[in-house]
Amino acid sequence: MPGKVRAQALPAKIPQPPASQLNFDERTSKLASPGNRSRWLHSLLPSVADLLFIALLLALSCGALGRLLLRDGDTGWHIRNGQQILRTHAIPRVDSFSATMSGHAWYAWEWLYDLLIAAIHQVFGLNGVVFYTAAIIAATFVLTFYLAMRRGGGLFCTLFLVVLSLAASAVHFLARPHVVSWLFTVIWFELLDSSNHRRLVYLPPLMLLWVNLHGGFLLGFMLLGIYLFAGIVRYFAEKEQRAESAFWLKRLSLVTALSALATLVNPYGYRLHIHLYQYLSDRFLMDRITEFRAPDFHGPAQQCFAILLLIAIVTLTSARRKPPLVHVLVILFAAFSGLYATRNLPTSSLLLVLLLAPMLSQSVAGAGDNPGIASWLRGLFSNVQTFGARMSAFDLELHSHYWLVLVFALGLWACAHGGRLGATQLLNAYFDDKRFPVRAAEVIEGRGIHEPIFCPDLWGGYLIYRLYPETKVVVDDRHDLYGDEFFKDYLRIVFVQPDWSKLLDERHVNLILVQQDSSLASILRQTPPWALVYQDSTAALFERK
């Protein structure tokens, strides 16, 4: 009709795009939506624990700290022992590395670690040994950080304590089996301290592994003893909860008994326990082996442990809630063991972090409401606590570990390709020629010298790694194998005390490799039967003519 716009007829059915196009559009719209985009980006963010693991892994394997892991000759004989187990399919019962103790009973109680480290060395070389050790250390401290956060620690307080414990433990950053004991200590404590009593069933299987990896399994029983003692005190002190305490004590006693039985499942049975007792109760050796002596607090690592102890004192005295007796006992035990022997600093520091982080965080949070301090300081504590709580909650929600897996995979790739990642030399692990007789070992090997060599005990493991089986050492640092009587004579030789030459004659020593600037090297240069056949800035080799 004139004056009206005629309506256009609509199709009976609106055409639909193909199904594949519809699915693509739906996926695109979902990814484009702000919420999903946020979740996608959120999944790519690394957590603080991931960043800590990556930083430690790279620093200890690729960075300047990487060479610290190979500053102990023990690594050498651990690798050779593991290779011997792989070759013979038998765990050693007698020594084969030393000319002095060849055929004598030897308790290689770390045989499982030796087997593992030898397999890694066979595939990846020394780079793999260092990378594996760095990964164990990183995993230990990251797990400590994560568990301390889960126990109530604030992000900043926990991170600060973990950094202190790292610094205190640096004195024992070595490619040796004791690093596995650090990891097992953290896991053992977490299972033992868990409110879920069912987790106790994991302790005996864990002990079965621990006893075959490292002698540090004794620490597990010390912690069990502390929890049993605290449980007995609670049983008599809290009469209204006596039934619950009795149930807990029965279960813990059973787990302790099963864990003790698990320690007998080792190549040497109960004789290993007797040997360990005789070794650790030998006062001559314990007073002279550096790592068994009390820490010297002039060193930076020891000073960091002292700071941890001061924080523990302040935290316990200012705690808003009285900590359980068992936690106080563990803190006291950690403090005492760290002060007793340098080798205990890492495990003591880790235990202190796990217990102090929640209490210190609560004290800092309470300072924001304390009317006894200045208002500006209360505001500062309050703001720090609020920001830290938000960061902690956000960090605990980050469960994707893409960056961690990527960095670890790249590290393994580099280990499998001579330490190189493309054209970049990422890892380059070696024994430092300023600390070990690297060039002297090359001379001995090149000249085909097969006679036993007397050397400082700290070089013995390295020479076993370089020269065995063609050349054996007279002594190395397996002090429990040689015993205190042998080391009394050894020290008389090294420090050139009366009858030093007679002791060398009695042991038929014709080759001596010592530090170039040592007292023994100086006296050998002036003693006619001995001739200097090689020297460099690190070592001097003498031969009896």
Query: Element order, helices and strands?
Result: HHHHHHHHHHHHHHHHHEEHHHHEHEE
Total count of helical runs of at least 4 residues: 22
Task: Count all strands and give the number.
Answer: 5
Shape: globular
Average per-residue pLDDT, rounded, comes to: 88
Strands ordered across the widest β-sheet: 3-5-4
Strand content: under 5%
Q: Termini distance? A: 131 Å
Characterization of this structure:
The chain is mostly helical. Among the domains are: 125-367, no CATH class; 438-544, no CATH class. 62% of the residues lie in helices and 4% in strands. The protein is built from 22 helices and 5 strands. It has helices spanning 19-32, 34-44, 48-61, 74-88, 111-150, 155-169, 178-193, 203-213, 217-237, 242-262, 270-280, 283-288, 300-318, 325-340, 345-367, 375-396, 402-416, 438-446, 457-467, 479-494, 500-506, 519-525, and strands at 420-421, 424-425, 511-515, 530-535, 539-544. The strands form 2 sheets. A 3-stranded antiparallel sheet has the order 3-5-4. Helix 3 (48-61) packs parallel to helix 17, helix 9 packs antiparallel against helix 10 and helix 13 crosses helix 15. The longest helix has 40 residues, at 111-150. The radius of gyration is 30 Å and the shape is globular.
